[in-house]
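The freezer alarm interrupted the setup, so I double-checked each line after restarting. Inputs confirmed:
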Amino acid sequence: MGSVRAELLKLKRSSSWAVVVALPLAAVASGAGNTVLAGEPLTDGWHTLWMRVVVVYGLFPLATGVAVLGSLVWRADHRGGNRNALMGRPVSALEAVVGKLAAVAVLAAAMQAVLTAGVVAAGKAVFGLPGPLPGQYLLISVLIVVVCLPVAALQSGLSMLMESFAAPVAVGLAGSVGGLLLVLLRFDAVSLAVPYGLTARATQVGTGAFMDAGTVTVGTLASMAVWALVSTVLVTVATAALLDRRDAG
Amino acid sequence: MSALITTHGLTKRYGGRTVVDGLDLRVPEGCVYGFLGPNGAGKTTTMKMLLSLVRPTSGEVRIAGRRMDRSTRRGLLSEIGSLIESPPGYGHLTGAENMRLVQRLLRLDDGQVARAVRTARLQDHIDRPVRTYSLGMKQRLGIAMALAGEPRLLVLDEPANGLDPAGIDEMRRLIRRLTGDGTTVMVSSHLLDEVDRTADVLGILGGGRMLFQGTREELFARSVPDVLVDTFEPERAAALAGAWGAVLDAGTVRVPGLGERETARLVARLVQEGVDLHGVRRETRSLEDVFMDLTREEAL
Ligand SMILES: Nc1ncnc2c1ncn2[C@@H]1O[C@H](COP(=O)(O)OP(=O)(O)OP(=O)(O)O)[C@@H](O)[C@H]1O
Ligand SMILES: [Mg+2]
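Predicted 3D structure, all chains:
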């Protein structure tokens, strides 16, 4: 699709890449740093490290980071000329919305790749953990990218409608706090249903943290992924319908 | 000439304010249509409605006879290139990369992109980041982006904005070249001078209403220049001509809005009263004056 290819081209030299690199590396640094400073050993090796880095990252920074990315990909398109050009071309509202979603999805996937690579690097270089990162965490990394999609769709839609950088980030921040509370207060079903809660739940799979069963089953992974995809489609279609009804500028 | 754009009763209201009011626009195919009006007249809003960027409160837009609305916009926009408000462009990308965006969106070949860049005279700056462009270069990039799809209709909103005299002149020649290839160009401005020499048809907007639509000759003909009466007794003559709305102006008598018959009557009356006349003439006026009068009346 032309819109997707065009949006990917806009990512070239984009300032979004700073977020993609800095946020997960900060999570790795603080998780590893706490471990070193507190002097608490990684009793269960890779699993403990994953818990201290990725679960903490998923509780809050992840959804907020996706919100920031959603605002960044829209920023230049809120300016009068670009906004008018975007909708003044023979491109349907759905194509325009899917193009933006694809851009955020690529950034979110890259952010997860940095996070996973960061965990591996810290595990090897700082803690000298034996063997490779357990394979289940690669699968869970893919799941985390998939559950970022509904947040990306929602945040991209909010950015489009609010035509502002800060306002959708504020909403994303509030959503992240809400998702965190749902997990802390152990609202099981609701935390899985809400995009900002689902990102936290996905990062906990296999760790036994909070409401997690501690085991990785195909059923858990598949149901989370399917709901993530379904909610992404729902949000995307709704956003496109709104864009189609709205006046540009 | 058949009309490429027609509107019927095109109206836009924001809150309680009517900013475009019952516009019946007619843009003939293959012409340059100069869309004029002072700031806030509603030019941009009208152009946005032509492109379905903004939905009319009432009335309709037809492009090549087909109704333009949200359900048909996609098909119709494939034949329209546009530049609305400020020029588009992504500062972190080069000119060439910005063109590639359009190429991907519209599925154009390399030749079409290269031609658009050359037509807009941007080839020397194409590999620089757009954030380093001057306003004129940005404007030209916007034009190149609008041109790339080889549209049948170009809608340009104040393309000369921020250009120096040489740039304005170049823009004029560019627009002329385009119509040579059969493209219809609708170009807006708040300065008559900018479009006067390029436009075949003028549409003058004031307070959201169409004040005039036609050729520049028709515009000239529509406005009646003031009659100036030169006499040795200006005070007495002005008093006598008071019924015709005469005013004293630097020793001559000025009578605005007087037709030929009324002028004859006025002269006969003055002669009858024994006023010594030594000249009756029409004040020559520029098209600019005519335009200013037209839009000033609306502002009152
Ligand atoms: N989204 C909007 N909401 C409310 N009012 C608006 C909106 N867009 C335009 N207007 C109003 O509509 C009127 C016409 O604006 P428009 O931009 O169409 O004028 P213009 O002729 O293009 O002026 P300029 O020469 O300054 O560009 C203005 O009074 C403006 O304030
Ligand atoms: Mg305007």
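Quick read of the result. The mean pLDDT of chain A is 95.
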